[in-house]
């Protein structure tokens, strides 16, 4: 009988799951994308030009498409965050 390396040895402790470091990395990336997109939208809609949190996204978004680009960043951040939640889920059916 072989053991599945993706299953946690202790289901009560998700930090012992082998994919836990990847989950943490994806959560950090999701946070950066969501906050960067939200602050970019605030800068565009409200006009807060002094708001420079994660301002490096300004160089990634094409000129003239700022609002669309920041919306894409927020949606992408939500998708990455959702994907990170499925990595260490223990209620998955293993066959």
UniProtKB/TrEMBL annotation:
Which segments cross the bilayer?
25-47, 67-87
Going by the entry's taxonomy, the superkingdom of the source organism is recorded as Bacteria
> Could you identify this protein by its name?
Uncharacterized protein
What does the UniProt keyword field contain? Membrane, Transmembrane, Transmembrane helix
């Amino acid at each position: 009988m072989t053991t599945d390396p993706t299953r946690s040895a202790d289901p009560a402790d998700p930090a012992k799951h082998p994919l836990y470091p990847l989950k943490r990395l994806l959560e950090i990336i999701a946070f950066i994308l969501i906050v960067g997109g939200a602050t970019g939208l605030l800068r565009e809609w409200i006009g807060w030009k002094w708001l420079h949190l994660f301002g490096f996204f300004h160089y990634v978004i094409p000129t003239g498409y700022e609002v669309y680009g920041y919306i894409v960043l927020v949606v992408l951040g939500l998708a990455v965050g959702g994907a990170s939640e499925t990595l260490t889920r223990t209620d998955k059916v293993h066959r």
